[in-house]
Amino acid sequence: MWTNILWVALGGALGTLLRYGINLWALPTGYPIGTVLENIIGSFLLAFLAALFIFYSHHEWFRLSAGVGFCGSLTTMSTFSADTFLLIARDEALLALLYGGTTFIGALFSAFLGLYLGRYLIDWLKVKGLNERE
């Protein structure tokens, strides 16, 4: 159990560092582009990894570190909610709507793309004879 906690913590630390870096880069804008990018990137990665977890299901340490830790700390629903309400509080309801739509549609599209590419990679690995589930 402690080993699993350490794997989650390691992945979480790395995801947090990436999130912090994205926020530093995006800070000068008045639009919360950092949070949009974090959620879109995280949705893509988690869906891509979900496809791989099906293929490589016995690598629990990787699922915990990459999926739960890294993607869990990279993406953020609470910051999305806070950013939305801050935009509304600044009387920028249209921008809040754009932000919500961009985040929602972008995250769903990137998750679909991640799952598609993950399954494509699995099929490619099967063709190459690298099917670990057999």
Automatic annotation (TrEMBL):
InterPro entries: FluC. It is found in: Cell membrane. It is a multi-pass membrane protein. Its main location: membrane. GO terms for biological process: cellular detoxification of fluoride. Keywords: Cell membrane, Ion channel, Ion transport, Membrane, Metal-binding, Sodium, Transmembrane, Transmembrane helix, Transport. Pfam families: CRCB (PF02537). GO terms for cellular component: plasma membrane. The chain crosses the membrane at residues 36-56, 68-88, 94-118. It catalyses: fluoride(in) = fluoride(out). GO terms for molecular function: fluoride channel activity; metal ion binding. The keyword Ion transport applies. The keyword Phosphoprotein does not apply. Na(+) binds at G72, T75. Na(+) is not transported, but it plays an essential structural role and its presence is essential for fluoride channel function. PANTHER family: FLUORIDE EXPORT PROTEIN 1-RELATED. Fluoride-specific ion channel. Important for reducing fluoride concentration in the cell, thus reducing its toxicity. Belongs to the fluoride channel Fluc/FEX (TC 1.A.43) family. This is Fluoride-specific ion channel FluC.
